[in-house]
Write a structure and sequence with these properties.
about 140 residues; mainly alpha; about 5% strand
Length: about 140
């Protein structure tokens, strides 16, 4: 089961760490002409942290893994995703929006960010649960 958790957590890390830069290093975010330079700075900072944390998670899961490194990696993924959902939850308090209002991305009628990060969160929860609450009597895969 540990190998399954490793694969699931890796997929989540790729989604939260490597997909956003492809979407956000565009005119809808980093290169948006109406964004202030300081807002662009924070966007690039956020993307860099996401990429670097995803790399750390993947290395922790795959390079000389052990239970503690894998559990730590699972917690980091939860923190990153909790940050996304916190900003989504409180967006009305700071005037935020899930998507660029001029170029919204929809997946099956759902905001693209919500769809993508919900899938990542479900995978993250499943992988984390497998690591932290292994079922007795099941041999590790």
């Amino acid at each position: 089961m540990k190998k399954i958790a490793t694969i699931i957590l890796s997929i989540a890390a790729i989604q939260y760490g490597f997909v956003p830069p492809f979407v956000d290093f565009t005119v809808s975010h980093v290169f948006h002409p109406d964004w202030t330079p300081h807002a662009k700075f924070h966007m690039v900072w956020l993307l860099a942290v996401g990429i670097l944390m995803a790399i750390y998670v993947l290395v922790s899961l795959w390079v000389k893994p052990n239970d503690q490194k894998s559990k730590n990696a699972s917690v980091i993924g939860c923190i990153i995703l909790a940050g996304f959902f916190s900003s989504a939850l409180f967006q009305s308090t700071y005037g935020g929006s899930l998507s660029d209002l001029e170029q919204p991305i929809q997946i099956l009628g759902v905001d693209g960010n919500i769809a993508a990060f919900t899938i990542a969160a479900v995978l993250q929860i499943i992988g984390t649960a497998i690591l932290w609450y292994p079922k007795r009597g099941i041999k590790n895969a």
